[in-house]
Specification:
This protein is an alpha/beta fold. It folds into 2 domains: 182 residues, NAD(P)-binding Rossmann-like Domain (Rossmann fold, 3-Layer(aba) Sandwich), CATH 3.40.50.720; 220 residues, 2-Layer Sandwich (Dihydrodipicolinate Reductase, domain 2). The chain is globular. The two termini are 15 Å apart.
Length: 451
């Protein structure tokens, strides 16, 4: 792309004014909510998870999706990481557009409904003055640029986890969302799971007594790294230059894109950020460290590949310690996403269901005067309600940043094979080797992209 992404709101609106007018359907066609009462949404990134979030938004009658954006036109190869040659559902901008238009066609009885358009460039979506909110469900290396641009454009944002690719990027996202008065929900959806909320309330209210150990377990990489890989032709359905965006240029290979991007450091932090974000977010939530972080992170034996395409830590193993002395370890293992809290009175564990050392713990009730967390049983609904009320959602930008930041800290400690001090207020490394570690807070963007 040739243009600079730092487009002001004035320029966005100028662009929107000269663009083809979007197809706005009368309220009598869509349903009882008038156009001014609907949240008009664009979906940026409509692969596997992006399509799930799109369908979640479609399930709410006060939402109208008018844009689907992705560098993938349409492909059923998203499942190839699971098994070579396997083909799954179709994803991409045209597939998503058709899902939306088919949904509204059935709902309205209008077979010719064409109110959702497909886009390759996210800036074309942000330039539309009729759009109130966007989902950002791209590979991680795009989250920062798109989220900051969306905040500048006056859009509210549902951004998938991990919030950021780097520590510095996460703080810039927080600052942009706050500066422009936007709502951001991070996709750490266990904040909207009753079982996760109950476990965290039990821990926070001392049902285990003093905590002695916290362990987080995450799965290994889901696919073996291509070792003697060679560049492949870019498929005709992919705009590869747009897919790379701010990441360094690299030759195309099918395992660089789609699901497997998670295992390459230019685009993600491996399963530490992919799965670890969820469980580390629960550690922060249950222990009262939502708005802060550890003061020390230590490598406990993380390993990195020496050959092949994938270069993220596997195995991963690191420990974080908070200023109050509490610590937790994160390591790869057989479980995909698991957290266990151990204390004086037993233990509680979570891997989408709660288990306990004593079944009586699961019959506990949170009483009057105890700490109770906000109830949300639908993460997308919570976001939409907050778009209307302007209240913070259950997983706001600061919380999303803090949980992702711990994952980045762990990756940096493992890369450096070091024990590092960290100032969670200043968000800078301290102590021995701090200068070296602080150089890893940011990654350079490939031009012309900037935050």
């Amino acid at each position: 792309m040739k243009t600079n992404p730092r487009i002001s709101r004035r320029v966005f609106l100028q662009m929107a004014a000269t663009a083809t007018a979007p197809a706005i359907v009368p309220a009598s066609v869509i349903g009882p909510n008038p156009p001014s009462g609907r949240i008009v949404m664009g979906c940026i990134g409509v692969g596997g998870m992006g399509m799930r979030n799109l369908r979640a938004a479609l399930g709410h009658d006060d939402v109208q999706i008018v844009a689907a954006c992705d560098p993938v036109r349409s492909s059923n190869e998203y499942g190839h990481w699971f098994k070579d040659g396997w083909r799954g559902p179709w994803f991409g901008r045209e597939a998503a557009r058709d899902v939306v238009n088919d949904h509204y066609a059935r709902k309205t009885g209008r077979a010719d409904y064409r109110g959702c358009e497909a886009y390759t460039d996210f800036r074309d979506v942000l330039a539309r003055s009729d759009i109130d909110a966007v989902t950002v469900v791209t590979p991680d290396h795009w989250h920062g640029v798109i989220t900051v641009a969306a905040a500048r454009a006056g859009k509210d944002i549902y951004c998938e986890k991990p919030l950021s690719l780097t520590l510095g990027e996460g703080r810039a996202m927080v600052d942009a969302v706050r500066r422009h008065g936007r709502i951001l929900q991070t996709g750490t959806h266990r904040r909207s799971a009753a079982s996760a909320r109950f476990l965290c309330e039990l821990v926070r209210n001392g049902r285990l007594g003093k905590l002695s150990r916290i362990g987080v377990e995450i799965g290994h990489n889901h696919r073996e790294s291509p070792r003697n890989w060679t560049p492949q032709p870019v498929p005709e359905w992919l705009d590869y230059e747009t897919w790379l965006g701010p990441a360094p240029w690299a030759p195309y290979h099918k395992d660089r894109c789609l699901y497997s991007f998670r295992f390459i450091q230019d685009y993600s932090g491996g399963n530490v950020t992919n799965l670890g974000t969820h469980m580390i977010d629960m550690v922060q939530w249950a222990t009262g460290h939502d708005d802060g972080g550890p003061v020390e992170v230590e490598d406990l034996g993380g390993g990195f590949p020496t050959a092949g395409l994938f270069d993220v830590a596997d195995p991963a193993h690191f420990r974080c310690r908070y200023a109050d002395g509490l610590a937790f370890e994160c390591h790869t293992g057989d479980r995909a996403a698991y957290v266990k809290f151990e204390g004086e009175r037993g233990w509680l564990a979570f891997d989408d269901v709660i288990t306990a050392s004593d079944p009586a713990l699961l019959r506990e009730r949170i009483g009057p005067g105890e700490i109770r967390f906000e109830v949300s049983d639908d993460h997308m609904r919570n976001f939409l309600d907050c778009v209307r009320s302007r209240r913070e959602p259950v997983a706001p930008v600061e919380i999303g940043h803090r949980s992702a930041a711990i994952c980045h800290l762990g990756n940096i400690a493992m890369e450096m094979k070091a024990r590092l001090g960290w100032d969670p207020a200043a968000e800078r490394f301290t102590g021995p080797r701090a200068d070296e570690a602080n150089r890893r807070i940011h990654k350079a963007y490939r031009g012309p992209w900037t935050l």
